[in-house]
Amino acid sequence: MRENPWKDLPPGTPGTLSVLRIPGLLRIDAFWGRKPDGRLALLIGFQNVEHVPVELPTVRGVALLVVAADSRLQLVLEPAGDWEMFHALCLDLLSAADEGMDEATGLQLLVARLLRWQKFLSKGIGKLLDEREVRGLIGELLFLRDYLVTTVGTAAVECWQGPLGLPQDFVFDGRLVEVKTFAAGSDPTVRISSPEQLTSGDVPLFLHLVCLVRQDDSLTLPDLVDELRLLLAGNHAHAEVLEDRLATMGYVDLPEYRAMSFAVTSVADYQVRDGFPRLTVEEIPAGVKYVGYSICLADLQPFAVACGVVTGAVGALP
Fold it and tell me: CA–CA distance from 259 to each of 128, 129, 266 (Å)?
């Protein structure tokens, strides 16, 4: 579990905050703080408070205040707020602000992160993704890491279109890929949440399946996110796209995710073409909505393709 930096910090006295300097920052001064009423706070100091925008993005559950007298930005968690979520927000903002070459740039990066958190928290997203959602996100990020980044480079993150509302998870090089994860079993199936997922018109469409099983000391979602961040670190714009997509998917760094680890036991690719077991949009009668169904994996073997076919790296489409 992530340590609570406010745990041993007493409440401030009337009119003041108790503070604890945050070590390891290169370009900014920042402090953990506690208000006299016990509320948790983050203080970020600036040489020129006029660089701070007059209007900052509002973040649900957090009060933001620019204190001109001591050139500080204060973020204060509301009484009913969750300290771990607030801690994750604070660390993200500190990382962004400390990346700037100067104060003005650091502030621009901080405001961009605030906008991302505003979007994330305004949806009323719960504290944690459930295990099914974690599995699904791991599957998509594995495809991004193992298939696309190796062939497309850092621009591969732009191909991850599922978080933007498209029916399929990935769009690239004139083809579509839907990623699904499943657990091993005697009769494994994968869930298709809508007819649109396996409907593509004349555009080549592939189904990428990843079998994940719970296993201690194996791959966690934060591990995978950290690997991708490292791979994209050389391109700031693409690194920001990754963070935006993760926020849209409802992911934020929290220690609880490290308690769920998975082993990849199999990976397979199939081309969705004539004869593939699916329901298409055209087959759904008018007036019928919210159609979901499951596909038996044993019936997919005639449609199997090599991974290089999916990415366009080798061979032609069957």
Answer: 12, 13, 22
HSE, side-chain direction, 13 A CA sphere, residue 202: 0
Report strand pairing: 170-172 vs 72-77: unpaired
Secondary structure percentages of the chain, helix, strand, coil, to 5:
40, 25, 35
CA distance 281 to 275: 15
| Residue 32 contacts residue 72 (beta carbons within 8 Å) | no
108 exposure class (CB count in 10 Å sphere: 0-12, 13-18, 19+): middle
Q: Mind spelling out the 3-state secondary structure of 152-204?
A: HCHHHHHHECHHHCCCCCEEECCEEEEEEEECCCCCCEEEECCHHHHCCCCCC
The per-residue pLDDT string of the chain (318 residues; one tens digit each, 9 = 90 and over) reads: 568 999 999 999 998 889 999 998 888 889 999 999 999 999 998 776 566 666 788 888 898 887 766 778 899 998 878 898 899 899 989 988 888 777 778 888 888 888 888 877 876 655 678 999 999 999 999 999 999 998 889 999 999 999 999 999 999 988 999 999 998 776 789 999 999 999 998 899 999 999 999 999 999 999 999 999 999 988 989 998 999 899 889 888 877 888 899 999 999 999 999 999 999 888 889 888 889 999 999 999 999 998 778 877 544 444
For residue 59, list its beta bridge partners.
62
Q: What is the dihedral of CA 42, 43, 46, 52, to 10 degrees?
A: 60
Nearest to 149 by CA among 182, 167, 132, 172: 172
